[in-house]
Structure formats: structure tokens, C-alpha cells
Design goal:
Strand content of chain B: over 45%
Mean pLDDT of chain B: 97
Distance between the termini of chain A: 28 Å
Distance between the termini of chain B: 40 Å
Largest interface: A-B, 28 and 23 residues
Number of helices of chain A: 0
Largest sheet of chain A: 6 strands, mixed
Structural class of chain B: mainly beta
Oligomer: heterodimer
Shape of chain B: globular
Number of helices of chain B: 0
Order of helices and strands of chain A: EEEEEEEEE
Low-confidence stretches of chain A: none
Radius of gyration of chain B: 13 Å
Mean pLDDT of chain A: 97
Order of helices and strands of chain B: EEEEEEEEEEE
Strand content of chain A: over 45%
Radius of gyration of chain A: 13 Å
Helix content of chain A: under 10%
Number of strands of chain A: 9
Number of strands of chain B: 11
Structural class of chain A: mainly beta
């Protein structure tokens, strides 16, 4: 059971917008930055969003992040076939003194 | 270009030990915190440990506390993970990850991982 809660799956057709939620608590998301990672099967994870809504250089602006209270969201607009991957949220947890991940959400492009 | 190259994985029996290494290049290693993150086959990501940029502080996941030790050699740009009393449930692909100062605990760069299999 992951400390951060994500839906196991999400899907959309090409061009659609998909949103992935990440729910936590005051010891993590509520008081800390949220980061998002994309992992294409068979490859290492890649940082997608950091500090809730910042995109590293090279990440398309189709990807956006937001945070409100103890929840965060990742939105993918203009869905592409190569967006098919697993997406993970993560944050530092002040009670556990460590980084906690969500269980991951598998995005399928129909 | 940032490179992180893990090594040291393999097949090991329960209760034995293994030491993983992560060779870093392309950035100022001594400026950044470093982490180990693992992924069991077919499962999600699990954070393992972090070490401060200068080695002054370390934190561990409860699942490995007391058995694993993270360390670093800033003179050689290498990160280590000493794993003792290994269990079957430690079987996973182990990644090292770079956490640049000010990134908000973001893993900006990852290696390709080294596979650890614990089996009798």
C-alpha cells in the first residue's frame, strides 16, 4: 500500500486531455513539493514535473502539474501515442523522513 | 551530459551481502544529494535511501533500515549502497538518482539500474 494514492489506470484517445490524481496527507503533499515521473516500460524513470508545476528543460508544455491542499494532479493535454507509460507522483514525507511514491498510473492511448 | 552508471548487482542468497556502486559524471557530484530507488519486477518505484551532498546526513526507508548503508566518495564521484542481510523481497532493479540542490527532492537524473536477485 503506497503512502500516496494514484488511480491504477487512465486512458484517452489521441488529442484528448488526461488527468492523473495523487492524494496524500499533511505530512507529505500538504507541506512539501510534489514531483512527477514518467516511465516507459523497460526504461528508467524520467523527471516530468518538479516543485508541483515546474517543467525541466525538454519536457513539452503538454504536461502540467498542480497542487491543492493534500492532493496534486498531472495533466497531459493533446495526448500522443508515445505518452503511453507509467506515471508516478512523489514527495518528501516529514513523518517518515523519506521520499514516498504513489503506486503509479498506467496511461493507455486508445 | 549527466551520466549515472550503476554496477554490482547479481544473484545472491538470502542473508548474504552485496555492495552496489553508482559512478557519476557530467555534473558536480559533490554539490548534490544522491538517492537509491528500487523497483521490484512488475511493481512500482520504492525509495530506498538518501545521502546529503557532503555525506553529513542519511535517511533510509523503514524496509531497509539497519540492513542497508548509503555512502559516497566525493573524490571519486561514486555513490555506494552496502546491502546486508538480504531478503527475497529485496529483489529489484536498483537505480541511483541525482537530487540537485533546490529541486525540491526531485530526481533529475537516473541511471539505468542494476538488478539484484535474492534467491536460494
Amino acid at each position: 500500500q503506497s503512502v500516496l494514492t494514484q488511480p491504477p489506470s487512465a486512458s484517452g484517445t489521441p488529442g484528448q486531455r488526461v488527468t492523473i490524481s495523487c492524494s496524500g496527507s499533511s505530512s507529505n503533499i500538504g507541506n512539501r513539493n510534489v514531483n512527477w515521473y514518467q516511465q516507459v516500460p523497460g526504461t528508467a524513470p524520467k523527471l516530468l514535473i518538479y516543485k508541483n508545476n515546474q517543467r525541466p528543460s525538454g519536457v513539452p508544455d503538454r504536461f502540467s502539474g498542480s497542487k491543492s491542499g493534500t492532493s496534486a494532479s498531472l495533466a497531459i493535454s493533446g495526448l500522443h501515442s508515445d505518452d503511453e507509460a507509467d506515471y508516478y507522483c512523489a514527495a518528501w514525507d516529514e513523518s517518515l523522513n523519506g521520499v514516498v511514491f504513489g503506486g503509479g498510473t498506467k496511461v493507455t492511448v486508445l | 551530459q549527466v551520466y549515472l552508471v550503476e554496477s554490482g548487482g547479481g544473484v545472491v542468497q538470502p542473508e548474504r551481502s552485496l555492495r552496489l556502486s553508482c559512478a557519476a559524471s557530467g555534473f558536480t557530484f559533490s554539490n548534490d544529494a544522491m538517492h537509491w530507488v528500487r523497483q521490484a519486477p512488475g511493481k512500482g518505484l520504492e525509495w530506498v535511501a538518501v545521502i546529503w551532498y557532503d555525506g553529513s546526513d542519511k535517511y533510509y526507508a523503514d524496509s531497509v533500515k539497519g540492513r542497508f548503508t548509503i555512502s559516497r566518495d566525493n573524490s571519486r564521484n561514486i555513490l555506494f549502497l552496502q546491502m546486508n542481510s538480504l531478503r527475497v523481497e529485496d529483489t529489484a532493479l536498483y537505480y541511483c538518482a541525482r537530487d540537485p540542490s533546490g529541486s525540491g527532492w526531485a530526481f533529475a537524473s537516473w541511471g539505468q539500474g542494476t538488478l539484484v536477485t535474492v534467491s536460494s
